[in-house]
Design goal:
The chain starts with 6 loop residues before the first helix and ends in a 21-residue tail after the last strand. The protein has 2 domains: 328 residues, 3-Layer(aba) Sandwich (Beta-lactamase), CATH 3.40.710; 78 residues, no CATH class. A hairpin with a 4-residue loop joins strand 8 and strand 9. Helix 1 runs antiparallel to helix 9 and helix 2 crosses helix 6. The protein is 22% helix and 23% strand. It is an alpha+beta fold. The chain has an 8-stranded antiparallel beta sheet with strand order 2-1-12-11-10-9-8-7, with helices on both faces. Strands 13-14-15-16-17-18-19-20 form an 8-stranded antiparallel beta barrel. A two-stranded antiparallel sheet has the order 3-6. It comes from Saccharopolyspora cebuensis. It holds the Pfam family Beta-lactamase. Its EC number is 3.-.-.-.
């Protein structure tokens, strides 16, 4: 499997992969790294059908399915068919959580039970939507307070039915036409298609395996039904990172990556957005999802800031350690990204130069820069604080894209000669000197004087 990495880096990555497969006795495993949308390194261990798994070998990806369902719900939102604040009853009436919002279901903060009523759904034949929804009664509501994180497979079964009712056809048909086909995910399916791995449980005290069932989960399928390949998941890491292929606007995917719930309290190393799991690791902010079904484990993480990602898939019920983040750490240790060469931009709007430089919010120094893509970047000159980028609007205002001022309006105040004198950012006034008395600072400005 080709790679552009140094031989020493390849060996370090292969050894980590080999240790994982050998020590945890995994029947087969494939893992790899992505950078700038291309496979940087991939390798595999074990066997599928007597041969090493390849980038075209299917594995069941479990709860990674939830991210695909999240994308379908956000498409409905962007079309104006629903709002994330809408109560579930407005779209799928009749359950005990009808007063919870679509956004709460996407972020696992609805208080709905982790699993549906009945036998262990991952190893049992699924039920149709009508029967599944009828069982979501008061027993399905957990006592945890609202707006706290409580992972719910049941909730994504409900969201799959929401998609089906809006589109008038099964969720997986909608997924095929609206996501899989446009992204050329030709080997991502709701059931196994050869070549594919079979799922196994490995005996804890002997080197023997037990075949795991792979039932059709029917109404619960949106929680974990999909199968996929390494190659298809490479394209999905690009989608999560913002290369959306017009399936969703990149701003919508960025919204999905924003934290909606935290699942490890004050530590905040892990959380959940809108269909994406979130992890903070080694200074990185990763978005994607893990997947677990009987006989299979999988993970996809994308680092949008670095335009990189990591993928692994294995056909074992349990036993994979922190392989994905370890591979990212090894790559950073052995071959960190070399910054691109700087060169002057030919597309800078020179009319914006008078906005650049130092501004003050009260006594705090900020600096405003023009980025090569035409965005304005405003951030503290030193230390941490409120930083945001802004996109120009036709009326001369600017809209915040991220950070504290996301969605807020920036207006440029000018004097009679047209010179920029202050920035009005959602009532915060930034001036060229601290508390410039010539600017409309709320409350007025008194002269500076020594402390008494």
């Amino acid at each position: 499997m080709s790679t552009s990495l140094l031989p020493s880096t390849q060996r370090a990555l292969l050894r980590r992969l080999a240790v994982e497969q050998s020590e945890n006795r995994i029947p087969s495993l494939i893992a790899g790294l992505v950078r700038d949308g291309e496979t940087l390194w991939v390798d595999s261990r074990g066997a599928v059908g007597g041969m090493r798994p390849t980038t075209d070998t299917q594995y069941r990806i479990g709860s990674i399915t939830k991210s695909f369902v999240g994308a379908l719900v956000m498409r409905l939102r962007d079309e104006g068919r629903l709002d994330l604040a809408d109560r579930l009853d407005e779209h799928v009436p009749g359950t005990a959580v009808g007063n919870r919002s679509i956004g709460e279901l996407l972020a696992h903060s609805s208080g709905l039970s982790a699993e549906p009523a009945g036998p262990w759904w991952e190893r049992a034949p699924g039920r149709p939507a009508e029967e599944f929804l009828a069982r979501i009664d008061q027993d399905a509501v957990r006592p945890a307070p609202r707006h706290t994180f409580h992972y719910s497979n049941t909730g994504f079964g409900v969201l799959g039915e929401l998609v089906a009712r809006h589109r008038g056809r099964p969720w997986y048909e909608v997924l095929q036409t609206e996501v899989l086909d446009p992204l050329d995910l030709n080997r991502t399916t709701t059931g196994p298609v050869a070549p594919h791995a079979d799922g196994y449980a490995v005996h804890p005290w002997a080197d023997v395996v037990l075949p795991e069932p792979a039932e059709d989960a029917v109404a619960m399928a949106p929680a974990g039904q999909l199968w996929s390949t390494f190659d298809d998941l490479v394209r999905w890491t690009k989608f999560v990172g913002g290369d959306t292929g017009e399936v969703l606007h990149p701003d919508t995917v960025a919204e999905m990556r924003a934290p909606g719930a935290v699942d490890d309290g004050a530590v905040w190393r892990a959380g959940y957005g809108l269909g994406f799991q979130l992890v903070r690791h080694g200074g990185r902010r990763l978005a994607g999802h893990t997947g677990s079904m009987p006989g299979f484990l999988a993970t996809v993480w994308s680092d949008p800031a670095e335009q990189s990602g990591v993928i692994f898939m294995a056909n074992t019920t349990a036993g994979v350690g922190p392989l994905a983040t370890d591979l990212l750490d090894l790559l950073e240790e052995h071959e960190p990204r070399i910054p691109a060469e700087w060169a002057p931009s030919p597309d800078v709007d020179l009319a914006l130069l008078d906005l650049t430089g130092q501004w003050y919010w009260g006594p705090s120094a900020y600096v405003l820069r023009v980025q090569p893509d035409g965005l304005l970047d405003l951030r503290p000159m030193q230390g941490r604080g409120r930083a945001s980028r802004f996109r120009a609007n036709p009326d001369g205002t600017w809209t915040g894209l991220d950070g504290y001022y996301s969605g807020e309006t920036l207006r440029v105040g000018r004097d009679a000669a047209g010179v920029a004198t202050h920035l009005d950012l959602n009532t915060f006034i930034f001036t060229r000197t601290p508390y410039d008395p010539q600017a409309p600072v709320p409350g007025g400005v008194s002269p500076w004087r020594p402390a008494s």
